[in-house]
């Protein structure tokens, strides 16, 4: 869905935040490396887009209007997300000549790694990182083949030749469309869940392996049924929201959809779906340099 043409651009929002922080349009212009007339023009265009003043100009400086304060509060999350996007793009650009190669399963790569990367850049600004994402089996292979110095996986299995250490915890949850009978009921039993074909990731996915492992421990001899197999979390969320069937995903991956009401998470009785997220690297080796820094950041959350 395209954005409204009335949405201000990132440069204008970032400038507004700096004006509010410094209390002066001139000082904000200098901080952004532009002239004061250019900064004034940028703010004027922002005001034209939103249809109201965002700053009050006085002889003592500039301060936000009520509307400006609200817009600034909303803009902070947008600018922060843009900074994470910028950090992620820098990682991709550095792939060919990086100092550290990292492999991470999809949930970790999409929902945790950007924040870890921001912290690593703050403590080690000269570190360039290349990230390769895939399922947990693919991540393990990248590390075993020495294509990545450290990996982050979601699956429950251990891999020969790799040591693993817990860095975080996560919950798997069942998600369905708001029109699904489980959404109306608010809960689902373990037996009913186990008998229902689900939308799943491909074989080797940490999320799928962990869920199947958890159910198998409760129901001896259980054989999973797959309604639809998709290779990305985004595709699974779209299918579940369209009421193709239930899915089991990380709570990190569906937080926005649950908040928006496009997906509903019924409570599962008699099944614990908390899982551990682990860092892996070759057995007998010690992490050093940026790999050690990244591991420390991941453990600290």
Structure description:
With 301 residues, the chain is an alpha/beta fold. It has three domains: 10-95, Winged helix-like DNA-binding domain superfamily/Winged helix DNA-binding domain (Arc Repressor Mutant, subunit A, Orthogonal Bundle); 99-162 and 281-299, D-Maltodextrin-Binding Protein, domain 2, CATH 3.40.190; 169-275, Periplasmic binding protein-like II (D-Maltodextrin-Binding Protein, domain 2). It is built from 13 helices and twelve strands. The protein has helices at residues 10-22, 25-32, 36-50, 66-93, 106-111, 113-123, 136-144, 181-185, 190-194, 206-218, 233-241, 251-260, 289-300, and strands at 55-58, 61-64, 100-105, 129-134, 150-153, 162-175, 187-189, 198-200, 226-229, 247-250, 267-269, 274-282. It has a six-stranded mixed beta sheet. A two-stranded antiparallel sheet has the order 1-2. A hairpin with a 2-residue loop joins strand 1 and strand 2 (61-64). Helix 2 (25-32) packs across helix 3 (36-50). The longest helix is centred in the first third of the chain and has 28 residues, at 66-93. The mean pLDDT is 91.
């Amino acid at each position: 869905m395209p954005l409204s043409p009335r949405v201000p651009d990132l440069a204008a929002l970032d400038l507004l935040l700096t004006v509010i922080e410094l209390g002066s349009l001139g000082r904000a212009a200098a901080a952004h490396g532009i002239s004061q007339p250019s900064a004034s023009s940028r703010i004027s265009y922002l005001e034209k887009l939103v249809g109201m003043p965002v700053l009050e100009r006085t002889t003592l400086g500039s301060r936000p209007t009520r509307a400006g304060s609200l817009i600034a509060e909303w803009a902070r999350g947008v600018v922060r997300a843009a900074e994470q996007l910028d950090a992620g793009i820098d990682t991709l650009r550095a792939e060919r000549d990086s100092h550290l190669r990292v492999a991470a399963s999809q949930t970790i790569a999409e929902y945790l790694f950007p924040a870890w990367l921001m912290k690593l850049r703050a403590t080690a600004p000269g570190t360039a990182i290349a990230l390769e994402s895939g399922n947990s089996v693919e991540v393990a292979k990248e590390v075993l083949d020495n294509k990545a110095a450290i990996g982050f996986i979601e699956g429950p299995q251990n891999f020969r030749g790799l040591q693993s250490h817990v860095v975080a915890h996560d919950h798997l949850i069942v998600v369905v469309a708001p029109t699904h009978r489980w959404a109306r009921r608010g809960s689902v039993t373990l037996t009913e869940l186990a008998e229902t074909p689900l939308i799943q990731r491909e074989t080797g996915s940490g999320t799928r392996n962990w869920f199947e492992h958890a159910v198998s421990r409760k129901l001896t001899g259980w054989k999973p049924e797959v309604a639809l197999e998709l290779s990305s979390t985004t595709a699974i969320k779209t299918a579940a929201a369209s009421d193709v069937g239930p899915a089991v995903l990380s709570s990190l991956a569906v937080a926005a959809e649950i908040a928006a009401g496009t997906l509903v998470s019924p409570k599962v009785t008699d099944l614990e779906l908390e899982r551990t997220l682990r860092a892996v690297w070759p057995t007998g080796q010690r992490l050093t340099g940026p790999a050690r820094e990244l591991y420390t950041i991941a453990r600290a959350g």
